[in-house]
Amino acid sequence: TNPSTRPPTRPPTNPSTRPPTRSPTNPATRLPTSPPTSVVNPPATVLIPCSVCGPSMRVGNPSAIVDFPGQPAIRCGTLEEAGFAGITSNQCRRLPVLINEVCDCSGPDDDDDGDD
Asked: In the 3-class helix/strand/coil scheme, how is the chain assigned residue by residue?
């Protein structure tokens, strides 16, 4: 037998049993429907004043450049000013480890006058 003339292995499905609906299927409501729910806004980011070198620490080399991946390069002095103006607590926790060496961070007990 020719494969193109064999009967199908099962009968074809019937076409649609009803024509498409042209009008609403649910009755109209008497009252207006509720508006769509709004997208929940994330909580506002809280900015806190922070020493970017760490507690009681200051930038020793404000002209040094810090370069974070995916961010524009920034001078240590500018970064310190931004920290004092307010950054997120997460940034405040992470920055000291990242910038300490480049920005020459030092505390009140560190002195560079060599009179040890």
From this structure: CCHHHCCCCCCCCCCCCCCCCCCCCCCCCCCCCCCCCCCCCCCCCCCECCCCCCCCCECCCCCCEECCCCCCCEEHHHHHHHHHHCECHHHHHHHHHHHCCCCCCECCCCCCCCCC
Q: For residue 32, what are its two tokens? A: 């207006």
Which residue, among 57, 55, 73, has the nearest Cα to 105 in the 3D structure? 57
CB contact at 8 A, 71 and 44: no
Which amino acid makes up residue 4?
S
Question: Which tokens hold the place of 5?
Answer: 């003339």
Radius of gyration of the chain (CA): 34
Model-level pTM?
0.56
Q: What is the pLDDT of residues 30-71, one digit of tens each?
A: 777 666 666 666 677 889 999 999 999 999 999 999 998 888
Distance separating alpha carbons of residues 113 and 115, to the nearest angstrom: 6
Residues in the chain: 116
